[in-house]
């Protein structure tokens, strides 16, 4: 940069030149030659006289960003076909039931009729956990505890509809609900159950009298239950089209108004619920047939942040733990899985394969693979949220401070 020339131009040197009167041809040639020598014919105040000299190959390589940075920034490929398809015979095609879960020990539990089967994804082995008679079954819900070693499942007892049986590891919890339980979720050692009797009950599995508290508000079957990661708030959805947010400290059988928020914006049953992993007070909910919407809630303020009409029944929702993305599973008419970018809610991909509505979804412990079970009696595994190799590459890059800055080694 020529700061002397810049100062000359800013102080009016060019104006003086333009105001100079006519002169002889020889004087004009002299001025032109002088301007070329002093480089005064430029129209820009700041300009580089010469291009930067080309550097040596080794210096250029040292200042070039590592090759893996480019690969991380590329748009990942999302396969339109499932990685694996397994048979799920006798799965109950009931929208309100929760028949699939993937535990932290990398084992999938799925309820098929009167039995519960386990599939170990590390070696592909299959085992039958329990099998019951028709007068006790079928299994209406399953849920792994956070430790991945204890599985809760509810059995509907047709011969005695006033009582259900809940099997917890080597223990059976009796009482509490008068009709089937279609939703389960864990909050540490507390197992929360939601049933067709409109009740939500907290069970402490460590003690003999396990029914410690209850939430009352729904007037139809409770088909969705999800505790937030902190364990302070519980979201429940029901066939009454209502979404409740409960506070763990307000669970009491004596209070007439226990809920923190009551949302009545959905126009169909609310089964699909998912708490955001990167914003603790953000909840996504999905409505069934007649609603078709995914809604986003700030559970601290009670505000509805956004509502998106998906065009079909929303059966399940899952947030990605690696990207700001949300996966939704749908029923009629296309039975697809749709991946959305948050918060723009632009569709990234749509995955087709199921020929009947998707009943449940579950995510692998590493957060990359999703399992979906549908009424077409199949269990499909999808590579939706990337691959472990990509995740390790990103993690390694983030661990090194200023990893995106080139340096000389």
UniProtKB/TrEMBL annotation:
Residues 51-80 are annotated as: Disordered. Pfam families: WD40_CDC20-Fz (PF24807). Residues 86-382 form the CDC20/Fizzy WD40 domain. It comes from the Eukaryota. The keyword Repeat applies. SMART domains: WD40. WD repeats lie at residues 215-246, 351-384. One of its GO terms (molecular function) is ubiquitin ligase activator activity. GO terms for cellular component: anaphase-promoting complex. Signal peptide: none annotated. One of its GO terms (biological process) is cell division. Residues 52-69 have a biased composition (Polar residues). Keywords: Cell cycle, Cell division, Mitosis, Repeat, WD repeat. Component of the anaphase promoting complex/cyclosome (APC/C), a cell cycle-regulated E3 ubiquitin-protein ligase complex that controls progression through mitosis and the G1 phase of the cell cycle. Belongs to the WD repeat CDC20/Fizzy family. PANTHER family: CELL DIVISION CYCLE 20 CDC20 FIZZY -RELATED, FI02843P. This is Cell division cycle 20.1, cofactor of APC complex. It comes from Sesamum alatum.
